[in-house]
């Protein structure tokens, strides 16, 4: 057993609710704290002096200086497996060119599909590892990673194999998601329905036989797949016991309705969600995932996070790190910006990037600093946990533990 401390403040997030608003006064913080870990698991969190007395034979990792400890962050929506970049798109958008005009001129998602297809599986694996390690150094210890830039059986499998291999070569935990239903590829000769049936028939069995993922995502949008078109695809995924998540209500509504109907773990984006959609999400068990990075990248409104919380919904916050609309990839910075514009409490932000985000991935062994959870935690060089969001991502972690191991030590 190992004792780590003393820690000026330890934010446990213990006993905070999965749904609804949380006041900062409810945030559980232990002063002069320590963490007892064994192998990859937290044994106890408590006052430092009490822990030392309780475990007299434990080895001690003594910390010099002041630190605040928080759970390792969980980014439940990223696209960090991709080729190339879309700096041209970003410059054009800022110059006033529309998203549709950029796509028609050869930019947009199809540009990334083209560049990703040119990459070998090994090259994509190295890209995933590089991006995951960058995220890890910012304190993100669990990272969801989507396919969706292959858009053929062969290319989607290539992406998912790269994510699988990357997971074995980074200390971060990578959770793969199949987003083959991102949009119908330009080189597919058939309807949207035919493309989706092609995926069900030819891709789903490989996902199961190679154990590449247990998660299916779909982009439900007027420019991608309609509510009616996507329903049989999701029915087939549910029949095979895949977990469902939905790109929902980004530009038009309908996706969140699908997410609730099919019992999706999460509905992500939600920038276009109105009162009806917010109410339905709040009454369901689907996690609402705000993606402020996409709002910053596209210059559009944020998801109605405050309304979702006030209605009793479960709100997670993710980076949407991708080469097109959200290239920044800084989860804490984006969450801090969302908090400013949507008036999200510090307790709600920390919950949204830890245990609530974990629930969106169907994970319940992380996101809180409590006995029995994975020993994933971050130390910041400060005495006040509020500094983390106050500095909007510029205050960086000093030390990061992943599964009980100090990263970089």
What can be said about this structure in brief?
It is built from 17 helices and 16 strands. The chain is α/β, with parallel strands linked by helices and 409 residues long. The chain starts with a strand and ends with a strand.
Describe this structure in words.
36% of the residues lie in helices and 21% in strands. The chain is of the alpha/beta class and 409 residues long. It has two domains: 2-71 and 367-406, Roll (Urease, subunit C, domain 1), CATH 2.30.40; 74-360, Alpha-Beta Barrel (TIM Barrel), CATH 3.20.20.140. The strands form two sheets. Strands 1, 2, 3, 4, 5, 14, 15 and 16 form an eight-stranded mixed sheet that branches. Strand 10 (243-248), helix 10 and strand 11 form a beta-alpha-beta unit. Helix 5 packs across helix 6 (153-167) and helix 7 (192-202) packs parallel to helix 9 (227-239).
Low-confidence stretches: none
* Tally of DSSP β-strands: 16
Report helical residue fraction.
Answer: 25-40%
In CATH, the topology of the largest domain is named TIM Barrel
Mean of residue pLDDT values = 97
Whole-angstrom Rg: 21 Å
CATH architecture of the largest domain: Alpha-Beta Barrel
Please outline the major beta sheet. 8 strands, mixed
Question: Outline, from the CA principal axes?
Answer: globular
Structurally, how many domains make up the residues? 2
């Amino acid at each position: 057993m190992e004792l780590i401390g003393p820690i000026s403040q330890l934010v446990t997030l213990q006993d905070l609710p999965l749904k609804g608003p949380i006041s900062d006064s409810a945030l559980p913080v232990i002063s002069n704290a320590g963490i007892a870990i064994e192998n990859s698991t937290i044994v106890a969190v408590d006052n430092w002096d009490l822990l030392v007395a309780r475990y007299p034979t434990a080895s001690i990792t003594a910390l010099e200086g002041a630190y605040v400890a928080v759970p390792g962050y969980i980014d439940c929506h990223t696209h960090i497996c991709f080729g190339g970049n879309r700096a041209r798109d970003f410059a054009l958008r800022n110059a006033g060119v529309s998203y549709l005009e950029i796509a028609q001129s050869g930019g947009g998602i199809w540009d990334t599909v083209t560049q990703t297809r040119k990459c070998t599986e090994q090259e994509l694996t190295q890209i995933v590892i590089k991006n995951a390690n960058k995220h890890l150094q910012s304190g993100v210890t669990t990272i969801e990673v989507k396919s969706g830039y292959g858009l053929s059986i062969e290319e989607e499998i290539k992406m998912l194999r790269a994510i699988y291999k990357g997971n074995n070569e980074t200390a971060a935990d990578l959770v793969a998601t199949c987003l083959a239903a991102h949009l119908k590829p330009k080189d597919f000769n058939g309807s949207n329905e035919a493309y989706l049936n092609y995926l069900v028939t030819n891709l789903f069995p490989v996902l199961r036989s190679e154990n590449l993922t247990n998660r299916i995502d779909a982009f439900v949008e007027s420019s991608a797949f309609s509510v009616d078109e996507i329903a049989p695809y999701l029915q087939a995924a549910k029949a095979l016991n895949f977990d469902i998540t939905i790109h929902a209500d980004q530009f038009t509504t309908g996706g969140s309705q699908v997410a609730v109907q099919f019992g999706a773990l999460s509905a992500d984006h939600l920038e276009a969600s109105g009162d009806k959609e917010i109410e339905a999400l709040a009454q369901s068990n689907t996690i609402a995932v705000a993606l402020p990075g996409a709002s910053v990248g596209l210059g559009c409104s944020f998801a109605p996070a405050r309304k979702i919380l006030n209605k009793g919904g479960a709100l997670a916050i993710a980076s949407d790190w991708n080469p097109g609309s959200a290239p920044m990839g800084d989860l804490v910075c984006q969450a801090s910006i969302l908090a400013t514009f949507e008036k999200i409490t510090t307790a709600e932000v920390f919950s949204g990037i830890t245990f609530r985000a974990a629930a969106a991935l169907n994970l319940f062994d992380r996101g809180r600093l409590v006995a029995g959870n994975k020993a994933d935690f971050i130390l910041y060089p400060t005495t006040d946990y509020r500094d983390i969001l106050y500095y909007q991502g510029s205050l960086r972690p000093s030390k990061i533990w992943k599964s009980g191991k100090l990263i970089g030590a």
